[in-house]
Amino acid sequence: MELSTLKIGWRNLGRNKRRTALALLAIGVGQFALLASNGLMRGYADNIRLAITGPMIGHAQVHAPQWKQERALDLYIDNLPEVMKQVRADEAVGNAAARVYAAALVAPEQDAFIAMVVGLEVDVESESYGMLSGLDEPLKEGHVLLGHRLAKKIDAKPGMEIAVVGQAADGSLANDLFIVQDIISSPADLVNQSGVVMSLADAQALLVMPDQAHEIVIRAKQAGQAEQIVERLRAEPILAGTEISPWQEIVPELVVILKTSDYVGYFVIVIVFVAAVAGIANTLMMATFERMHEFGMLLALGSRPRRLIRMIVIEAVLTGILGVIIGTALGYLFVFATADSGIDMASWGGSGGEVKDMAYKGLNLPLHVFPRLEAFDTMLGLIAVLFTSLVASIWPAWIAARLEPMEAMRA
Length: 411
Fold this sequence. Notes:
six-stranded mixed beta barrel, alpha+beta, 16 helices, 52% helix
């Protein structure tokens, strides 16, 4: 490619500055839309992934067979201390926590309300991504924590004594009095809506479940190790007869949402495609007809038609690249500007700040999104624009290549 041809192509962008600016704006807006939407979707996908593998589900879970379907009180994991020892011995396991769940009635005074007893290993669940993450002080023996929505419904206050009544695992009556230590807002919607949270030891005593639990939540040291952990634990004799599942099998619907979010960029790329074709094709067609006399002179002086084709293609590619640069700069500026503060998507619904998250199957999916981009997002727009630039230049280049010198000079 001759250097003079490249210079002519670059110079031609300035022939009609307004038209070129409009073409660059169209492409830039398309690229910005691609990066902004991809950034938002990646940020929201991060929220979903953290919500899944965080407080409620973890990276993997262990249950008694059929417990996930029936949630029956007597479907529990037996020999809990030995099982926990084996689970925690896996080198890829960051932490593991046993849990107990049981439907019950809670009575602060005379009226009784339906609730869910949640027995937790408080020390483990108080860590990052635990169900009690951020707990200010350890949960005392004989004390409980109430989810804030349950506490509001039953008008409970810290220091109040409440009765918890239900059925024990052996069929007997489970009942005891507990002191409300605090009202909490948990990352788990189950706790917020109906949770009466107590220590695992208190729950086991209340429900007559010595050395037993309904669920073991496993968090891996690295997110991608869940399936390998599950495979190894399934081979352990002490875990024979239990169901061990990675998070992908526990909430397959959310896995579909995560996969779908990865393809949003391909839908937005249509915007970039249309903007590039409309902007570049219009610019090149107008420029071609305006420069008929110039093209005729070049042909008369011995230039070959393929040089005219190169000039037009170069002009199209330069327009596309400049538009992508402008859109990329705007897209990254948007992401950097919101990287720390994030974007509160809940405010878009006019909730006045009352709604902070969206609940799905006991999970809190935060609506405060922190946009994030990957290098491929920029390349996706660049590749699309370069392709469309070449497509848009075909018709103007074909017209220029078929010009007769004398006719073009008289135009």
